[in-house]
Amino acid sequence: MMQNSKIIGITGGIASGKSTLCTLLSNMSYTIINTDNITHDLYTKGNKGYKKILEIFGEKILDKYRNIDRKKLGNIVFNDKKKMLQLEDLIHPLVMEEVLNKVEKTDEKIIFVEIPQLFEAYDKVTQYINFYEIWLIYVDEKEQLKRLIKRDNLSKEEAIKRINSQMSLEEKKLKADFLIENNGNIEDLELKLINKIK
To answer: What whole-number distance in Å separates Cα of residue 7 and Cα of residue 89?
Structure first.
């Protein structure tokens, strides 16, 4: 694969501030490719991912409009590691192909790619992308739990289960090229970002 741009991976734990970081970068006129948005598109009716997901999980994951209910699907995969792997193996290649399409269509010198499960799927991701750097945004466990419960309207038990389904932040810190601590407010985060890229 021809890759002329420097690709920087953005990752972190659930509810650690990845989307906020990418919004700040976008405001600075950087190109952001959001794999969650690509995945969301794959889940929509008529898309190639939709039919394949139904083949595995059945119609119990649909809402009354026959759209995939992300919360129902989440409840299944976050409670069954085998089902999680099935979903990842199905969706992952489709997502990465679309990332490459987007990379090839831009002539930007730096492109940021937000991949929530980058380290969990590192071997698979790096079959498609050669990263210049990987940035990890993180918060402490107490703050992460609080933000996740509030953001997704989850019980404490549901939130803990989702956090524990991912690689620990401590392990991710050892693998990242650059660490961004995000226990403060958005102004603190923006200042750290400016200091990194100026």
So the answer is: 23
